[in-house]
Each structure stands twice: as C-alpha cells, then as structure tokens.
Amino acid sequence: MTSRPLILGSSSIWRKQVLIDMGYIFKTMSPDIDEKAIRDSDPKTLTLLISRAKAQALLKRIKESDDELDKKSIMICSDQVIVHNGVIREKPETEQQCREYLQSYEFHPAVAVVSVVVVNIETGKIVEGTDIATQHFKKISDEFIDKLIKQGDVMHCAGGFTVEHMADFTLQLEGEVETILGLPKTLTKNLISQVSQ
C-alpha cells in the first residue's frame, strides 16, 4: 500500500474493480486521448506508447490545476490489446467485428498484452512494465454472442470480450485474470511500490 493518494487514469469499470479488490482507495480521471493516433505493430510497444500518452495528458492537466492533493498523488495509467493468432485487436469498431472476434476464439486463444505506467506526480519518478495473460475459450454459441453484443460491454473491451460474462465458455487461463481485465495486479502493485520509495 501507499500513503500517497492514488489516481487511476482510466474510466474502465474493470480497472476500477481491480484496484478496489486490491484494497486501494483512489479517484479516477479520464485521459481523453486519441488512442488511434498512436500506432505500432508490436503490442508491447503499442500499449506502452498509449499508456505513456495517457499519463502525459493527465500530468499536464494536473500540473495546470489548483488541486494540491492531485499534485502529491501517484497516478496509474494502462492500456491493453488482445493478440489473436498474431494480430492485434483493440476495441471492436462494429458489432459485426465483435461477432467475428468472439467466433474466432475457439480456434486461437486471446492473449492480453497490458502495459502500465505509474507516476509519482510530486517527485516526477515514472516506472512502467508490461504483463501478458492468455485466455483459452471453447466455442461460443451464436445465441450467446448476440446476447453479449446486445448487452454492450464487449463493445468497449479490447478483443471484444469480458471474462466475467463468459465463464461458461472459458477454458485455461495462463497468467492473472486481472491482466485480462486490463490492470495486472502484481505488476501494478510492484510499480506503485517502486514510485512510493
């Protein structure tokens, strides 16, 4: 744990839940950057670049604000992509694309690549890292895919799926479920510890 206030640089309900489950008290701020303007063919590099951009956008906003507590905080920003059979997948752009994503996971697993950038705003210390987890699925029925898409959450998730809604179709998980959710628990805890010293 840290004695400094925490800021989660994300509006993701899944990242929020990971931090809550870890026992942290924090506030959230949305970076509001154009992630599509940042491109790289390597998933680790891409997620690091986007995480850094999120952190820089929020740092600028915090430094220009009058909130002294924010200026003494530790900020966490992360980004996630899913790699499927060597191809990077971000959030689906259409329902059809989401449907194709979900139908494909029975053939190749979903590999979550998540980068995290943690900043001690007061000292300026920045640390970062990347974690990977692989989720294997069995065939997901068309009826269930329709239900997921209608419900809507999957349209806001890298790779077009949410593990909490798909328990009946999940097989082996290699790595942390928190990585699949978008915020690796062990990595995040270690990075917070590093900037707290």
Task: Spell out the key features of this protein.
seven-stranded mixed β-sheet; hydrolase; 6 helices; 197 residues; nucleotide metabolism; single chain; 35% helix; Maf protein; cytoplasm; alpha/beta
Structure summarized in a few sentences:
This protein has 197 residues and is α/β, with parallel strands linked by helices. Helix content is 35%, strand content 24%. It has a single domain, classed as Maf protein (Alpha-Beta Complex).
How many whole angstroms does the radius of gyration measure?
17 Å
Percentage of residues assigned to helices = 25-40%
How many domains is the backbone divided into?
1
Instruction: Write the H/E string, N to C.
Output: EHEHEEHEEHEHH
Basic shape: elongated
Low-confidence region ranges:
none
Structural class: alpha/beta
What name does CATH use for the topology?
A: Maf protein
Enzyme class: hydrolase
Family: Belongs to the Maf family. YceF subfamily.
GO cellular component, one term: cytoplasm
Active site: 79 (proton acceptor)
Describe this structure in words.
- The active site is at 79 (proton acceptor).
- It catalyses: N(7)-methyl-GTP + H2O = N(7)-methyl-GMP + diphosphate + H(+).
- Keywords: Cytoplasm, Hydrolase, Nucleotide metabolism.
- It holds the Pfam family Maf.
- The chain has 197 residues and is of the alpha/beta class.
- Helix content is 35%, strand content 24%.
- The protein is built from six helices and seven strands.
- It has helices spanning 13-21, 43-64, 95-104, 142-151, 177-181, 185-196, and strands spanning 6-8, 26-28, 74-84, 87-89, 110-120, 126-137, 170-174.
- Strands 1, 2, 3, 4, 5, 6 and 7 form a seven-stranded mixed beta sheet that branches.
- α3 (95-104) crosses α4 (142-151).
